[in-house]
Amino acid sequence: MKRKTVFSGLQPTGNIHVGNYLGALRNWVRLQDEYDCIYCIVDLHAMTVEYDTSDFAKERGEAARVLIACGVDPKRSLYYYQSEVPHHVELAWILGTITGTGQLSRMTQFKEKSGTTGANLGLFAYPVLMAADILLYRADAVPVGDDQRQHLELARDLAERFNFRFGEEFPIPEPIIPEHGARIMSLQDPKVKMSKSDPDPGSRILVLDDPDTIRARIKAAVTDSGSDVRFDWEQKPGISNLIEMMSLFTGRPLESIEGEYGTGGYGKFKEAVAESVIEGLAPIRAAFAALDDGDVEQIVRAGALEAHEKAEVFQQRVRERVGLRG
Ligand code: AMP
Ligand code: TRP
Question: If you take atom 14 of ligand 2, which residue's CA is the nearest one?
Fold first, then answer.
């Protein structure tokens, strides 16, 4: 029987943090055992906000290296840069012709980002390109964090709309969003998610941060009033965020952590959280150091060739369906 296809993407804008890892990347890695996985560094998406052209290729290469260090295995998964396969953009154009502008203007991420950087067509069409990424390979499932839920809903709508208008072509992709870790919060404000673009580096822990930085970040993390260590997003968002991280890095249930640190005060608890994060990230730092930039570039280049071939076969069917071929 044909194995199901998984697709996901990550923007190569430096700063890959524990939110990316716990919300998405860990699932990417896990799914490689069971599915045909396609993982893409979505450089075209990253161009929709201001960026520095002189650093862009370097950051993209570093992101590619980080993901391999996190466990993306190019021997098992197809792994490449989005811009190397022009079919993403071609399909995005076609899907754009069946996308309502009203639906796009309701996208939370568009509203947030256009507020800070000014709207451009790329930012507006961002979710359509994302839908094209997914549908191009007929993906069945998409591992992402909670913030991508709405975009995935659009991809599902577009698949249905296309199938209805032009004939059954796309499976309706299912989101894979973990029950815990899908929304790791900022260490400085547990009401907002941890983000690559937060101007305050104290708000996040990067997967490559050294142990001293991690200890300092967690020590300085904003906590809640009171002193009990309790998992309760309403009353104790700061502490809950830390409990969740510790639980995910150690594999211990939330209750067992609450049980051990419940009444011992924040200080001791934070030290334990820091050590569990350091230990959880150590293999990634080591794997990153052992990789070579030249090898990584070769891997993504070979991936692009294979992805290109695959995409061409699939896209030909779309061209036929929409009337662009005979
Ligand atoms: P991005 O950094 O926007 O390219 O996101 C890459 C992946 O990480 C996506 O699947 C996001 O949903 C996920 N992600 C980003 N930020 C977080 C967060 N704070 N918590 C959990 N997952 C996240
Ligand atoms: N928009 C996603 C993010 O910012 C990245 C992305 C682009 C993606 N294309 C995708 C994720 C396709 C899953 C599937 O996190």
Answer: 8
